[in-house]
Amino acid sequence: MRFSKSFIPTLKETPAEAVIPSHILMIRAGLVRQLSAGIYTWLPIGYKVLRKIMDIIREEMNAIGGQEFHYPALNPKEIWEQTGRVEAFGDIMFHVKNRDYVLAPTHEEIVAWHAKGGITSYKDLPQIWYQIQTKFRNEPRPKSGVIRGRQFIMKDSYSLDRSFEDLDKSYELHDKAYRKIFERCGLKFFVVGASSGAMGGSKSEEFMVKSEAGEDTVAYCEKCGYAANVEVAQSISTPAKRHSESKELYEIYTPNVKSIDELCAFLNIDEHETAKSRIYIHDGKPVLVLMLGNDEVNETKLQTVLGGNVRPAHPDELKEISGADAGSIGPIGFKHRIIADNLLKDANNLYSGANKNDYHIGGIDLVRDVPNIEYFDLRIVENGEKCIRCNSNLEVFRAIELGHIFKLGTKYSEALGVNYLDENGKEHPVVMGSYGIGVERILACFIEQNYDDKGIIWKKPLAPFDIHLIGLNMKNPEIRDTCESLYTNLQKDGFEIIYDDRTDVSAGFKFNDADLLGMPLQIIVGEKNLKNGNVEIKIRKTGEKVLVSLSELSQRINTFLNE
């Protein structure tokens, strides 16, 4: 590719809308251009990298027996209504104007629809179907460039099996394929246990990269390798005490005390003596959730416990349900279902709201005073708490999700009537798995892990080009002819080259663009070295510069690229 004939709109300045390194560098290097919030055009160099990522994905998916489809992005709404996911996705799903169609955020329903028409016998199974397709999600706050957008490219695959035992095998195949994909793309990643969310299903794992730009939070133990998204993470933490004697209930006037910290300061107590109350609406009915001290409700865990539709109660609903506003709500006298985090199990002498504004109650014994209370793991794990496997300290940090694999089971096949006949003619639902990769996220995460203050640092597998050929003083016929010869001959040797043949910009401008674009090797052709039959090779990652004779150039390039 000749620079002078290419559309590579590099920028010197940081774009105002970009905050994280990958977003800044993708715009500055001319990989993408933003059309609207969460919507990007992939420019030629950026799309070239995406194609390389997609080729790696295809190779590894084909290696495990995957068959590539291309499902429609425009789907009849009625198929999604059969599985209840129009409501589950809510406003995240795009609806077309006549409301009879939706833009697919994923494709479980469509795969099941095709399977229903094509799989009838156990002889038709197993199957692995995959696609690389544009998806749409109406993100209310798209940010971080292509990491969270409204239109994005995703690889999703689906396994179709006879049994849960066979699903285990398909799941394992995908797990190994994903590790190979991310390794080949040069990423440092780890795998965490996760929630399957709106996808449903049982076992679920996410492939993550550590990054301050991430929207996921992960709990990780460096000693034993335990890792989990905080949506499902567990830890060892100090529970509330069960004292030998229980105090009598008593009411306390607590004017303008709303938070746990304010209550502890007002009564001069420790937060482990308090129970914080939150009200949720579950399938139209109130549920009181009790948490120890300042612990926060993990709404993913709560959703798993309750099932159905769960949402926080609105502020204007609280007084009608409990008799008090937020900050004065508690379990004593609460007339609806009450559940609590495990750290509160059988605790006594607690303080909580009195269900009357500006009042709290002390001496609460959950065994004596709340006999129908239920206990579950409902809290969000915090940094420094103990690992449930080895009792070492957990680190909690931000991370970006690259891929997510689920065991769906029969959720979709039962909803859409996808069945097969076994050897005895008995009908069974097809057992499904779902496996996704954010293609654009791979590129963004690679840049997050491989850049410096000058620009991107590509490695060969994803690099748009192997070599950035730079001719200094292109008006010199000898330099121009040498560059033209190198451009032609090195391409014949199998190298991918971008050739900066511009005559109207300075050497410094060319060097800055080359560092910004970040190809693994730069070949610099200048008058001084060329007189001695040499050119300069610069290794982008280290900045090291080496003089190489023209006769040895191809061999030395191979050596550097292999290293």
Tally of discrete structural domains: 3
Helix content: 25-40%
CATH H level, superfamily name of the largest domain: Bira Bifunctional Protein, Domain 2
Strand segment tally: 29
What is the annotated CATH architecture of the largest domain? 2-Layer Sandwich
Mean pLDDT: 93
Provide an overview of this structure:
- The protein contains 16 helices and 29 strands.
- It has 3 domains: 37-233 and 396-447, BirA Bifunctional Protein, domain 2 (2-Layer Sandwich), CATH 3.30.930.10; 250-376, YbaK protein; 467-562, Anticodon-binding domain (Rossmann fold).
- The protein is globular and about 95 Å long.
- It is 28% helix and 27% strand.
- The strands form 7 sheets. Strands 3, 7, 8, 9, 10, 11, 12, 21 and 24 form a 9-stranded mixed sheet that branches. A 5-stranded mixed sheet has the order 16-14-15-17-20. The protein has a 5-stranded mixed sheet with strand order 26-25-27-28-29, sandwiched between helices.
- The protein is of the alpha+beta class.
- The longest helix is centred in the N-terminal third of the chain and has 21 residues, at 164-184.
Give a short overview:
The chain has 563 residues and is α+β, with helices and mostly antiparallel strands. The strands form seven sheets. Strands 3, 7, 8, 9, 10, 11, 12, 21 and 24 form a nine-stranded mixed β-sheet that branches. The chain has a five-stranded mixed β-sheet with strand order 16-14-15-17-20. The protein has a five-stranded mixed β-sheet with strand order 26-25-27-28-29, sandwiched between helices.
